[in-house]
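Bench log, entry 3. Co-assembly request; chain sequences pasted below exactly as received.
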Amino acid sequence: MAMIVSDSEDDAYTERTALVQSENPAVPSYQPDSASAQRSSGRGSGDPAGGASDADDDELTLKYGAKHVIMLFIPVTLCMLVVVATIKSVDFYSEKTDQQLIYTPFTENTSSVGRRLLNSVLNTVIMISVIVVMTVFLVFLYKYRCYKFIHGWLILSSFMLLFWFSFMYLSEVFKTYNVAIDYPTAGMLIWNFGAVGMACVHWKGPLPLQQAYLIAISALMALVFIKYLPEWSAWVILGAISVYDLVAVLSPKGPLRVLVETAQERNEPIFPALIYSSAMAWTLGMASPADSEPESRTDEEEAEPSGEGAAAERRHSLERDEQEERGVKLGLGDFIFYSVLVGKASASGGDWNTTIACFVAILIGLCMTLLLLAIFKKALPALPISITFGLIFYFSTDFLVQPFMDRLSAHQFYI
Amino acid sequence: MTVAVFFGCTFIAFGPAIALFLFTIAREPLRVIFLIAGAFFWLVSLLLSSLVWFISVQETFRFAYYKLLKKANEGLLTLSQEETMPISIRQLAYVSGLGFGFMSGAFSVVNILADSVGPGTIGIHGDSQHYFLSSAFMTMAIILLHMFWGVVFFDACEKQQWWAVATVVISHLVVSCLRTCFYCCLHVLSKCRTEPSDFTRCRINRLGLYHDFDRNKHIFTFLH
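Structure output for the full assembly:
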C-alpha cells in the first residue's frame, strides 16, 4: 500500500508550539510596565503608586497563576487520557506497520544498532527541516497578509482531521469492539461531528465545545504520529523538536516569535485553529471577580473625586471592551507532542508505571513553564521543559526502575 | 478475574484517597499543584533509590520537599501584602503526603489492576485466592500512611522534634518489613526468568506465578 502523503496535516502541528499569556487584545507591545498595567486594568491610581501597583501585580499573579495552571492541566490531562485509552484498547494504533510517513523515509528494520540509530537521526533531520520550512512559509504568508491562503490551508487541514482521521478512528474502534454499523449511520455520525467541529473551530461556538474539539483534533493527530513514526525516530524527533521550539520562540528571528509579535502588533488574535485558549470571556456589564476587588480597594483609598473619577473611568473602559480575555493560551502542537510522548510510553511497554511517570513529569514541566510565564510575561516555548522531564522519566523508569521493581519482587521486598 | 474484580480492587485501593482529593483538594488550584509536585518528588526519589536502594532515600526526599516548600512559603509571604498566606504549612503537609501516597500506591498496584482485567485464574497452584484483594487493601493502607507520615513529618520539622522524624522513618521501615513478611508467609517463590526475549516480557507476579505476555498474539498464559 502506498505511503500516506499528508501535505496539509503538517501545518496542524508546525506552528502550534508556543505558550502565550493571553492579554487584552489592545496590548500595543509587551513591555513589562504596560503589560502589567493592562492586566491590572481598572486598578491603581497610576504613576505615584507605581511601586504599590507592582506589588499588587505580583500578588494577583500568584493568586490567579494557580488557577491558570489548573485550567491547562485539565485539557492536557484529557488529551493524554484519550490517547492512552485508545492505545491500550485499540490495537491498530500500536501494532507494528511497515507503512511510514513520507517524512520519515528511512526504515528502522535494519540489523545493526548503528545503522538504526543513523536512520532515525536522518528521519529526524528530514522531519524537522520540513517543519521549519512550513513554519517559515506560514509566517511569511502571515506577514504579507495572505490571510485567505492561510485560512484555506487551515480549513483544509482541520477538514481532513475532523472527517478522514476521525472516520478511521471510529472504524478501528468499531472493529475492536466488534460492533456492526452500517455506512449511512456512520456517515451521519461523522458528518455531524465534522460539521460542528469545523463551525466551532473556525467560526463561532461555545468555548467549552471549541476546547473539546481542539482536544479531539490534537488526540487524533497524536495517534497518527504514534502509529506511523518508527520507534527510535519518535524519541529523537521529540528531543529535536523541543530544541527547535526553544530556538523558534526565544531567538529574535525565530519564526514563532515573529508570528506572535506580528499578531500582537496588529492587535489580532492568532488563528483559533492553532491555539487552545483557556480564556474566560467577559461581556458588557458583567463584573469580573478579579477586578471588582481591587477596584473597591481603589475607591476606598482614594476619596478624592479625581481618584474616583479615574477609577470609574477605568471601569468604564473595561466594560467598553466587550470581550476581554484573561487566560493562558497553549499551542496545539504542545498538546500533540505531550500526547505522543505519553502514548509512545504506553505503547512500547506493557507497563503502566512508565506511563504514569511520564504523565506526572509532563504536568510538572507544564507547571514550571507557566511559572516562568508569570515571571517573564511573554511568549514562551512550552515543549522543552516538559519533554525533557518526560524523556528523562521514560528512559529512567524503563531501564532503571522496572528492573529494580522486578528484583524487589523477586526478593519479595516491597517499598 | 473480571472487570468486577478490577473495579472493586481499584476502588478499595484508591477510594479513600480519591475521596480526600475530591472533597478537600480539587477545588483549590494551589493545592492540586502541590499534590502533583509531591507526587513528582516521590518519583524522583524512586529514580534515585533505584540507584541507591533504600527507604531512607524516600524520607530524605520528603525532607527535601519540606525545605523547598518552606522556602516557597517564605517567598509567597514576602511577596503578598496580606497577613495570611494562601496556603498554610499544615495544608501543605497534608497535600504533599497525599501526593506521595498517590504515586506510591499507583506504582505498587497499577500493574496488578491492569492484569486483573484480563483472563486468567489466580491461585491455580494452590496459592492464595485473595491476592488482588489483599494487594488493594495494602495499597490503601500505604496511601493513607504516606499522608499521615507527611503530616507528622512536617509538623515535627516545624517544631524541631527530631524524635518524631525518627519515628516516621522507623515506622516506614517497619511497615515495609511487615509487608515482606506477610507476602513471604503467603506465597511461594518461583523461578524467575531474567532474560526477556524479544517477544515476551516476563514479570514476576507477587504470588509466585509468572505469566507471559506475548505481545504479538496478545495471549495471557499462566505458567508456573
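Residues 163 and 191 of chain A are 7 Å apart (CA to CA). The beta strands of chain A are 19-22, 275-277, 280-282, 324-331.
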